[in-house]
Amino acid sequence: TYAPKLxxxxxSDINCIQDVAKEILNCYGCVDxxxxxASMKVKGAVQSISLELDKKIMDANYFGPxxxxxxxxxxxxxxxxxxxxxxxxxxxxxxxPFRAAYAxxxxxxxxxxxxxxxxxxxxxxxxxxxxxxxxxxYHRQPAHGNWEASIWK
Length: 153
What we know:
The protein is built from 3 helices and 5 strands; from the N terminus they run H-E-E-H-E-H-E-E. It has helices spanning 14-28, 51-79, 100-120; strands at residues 33-36, 41-42, 82-87, 125-130, 151-152. The protein is globular and about 50 Å long.
């Protein structure tokens, strides 16, 4: 067994994910199970949410998990073993009002990991998606008119 090592990662910061993956692989040599369980959401009408905030949500919920997965995947493929899990959301299957960016990012993630599942079968790598219904999350109350602060993490 290995002693646990705390490695901080902002999954929405795509530029640092490769370095973190290298640090993990250098420390432990491999990753047996990768659980992608990070998320960011905002509640608001489509016309009220900035494109910049839409992009941040897409980075955290789609590009972050796929970037981390792609960084770990070559090691799993070379060992012909591993399990990748995406903890997603029911909103990756259905959209509800006032959650357009969140639902879009979760739909994209489901599509990516569904394709990955089919591709990884030949390498004996298991890819699973979990789509729970609504869950209680940490939330910062926004100041009036401050949509940026209405992000759920």
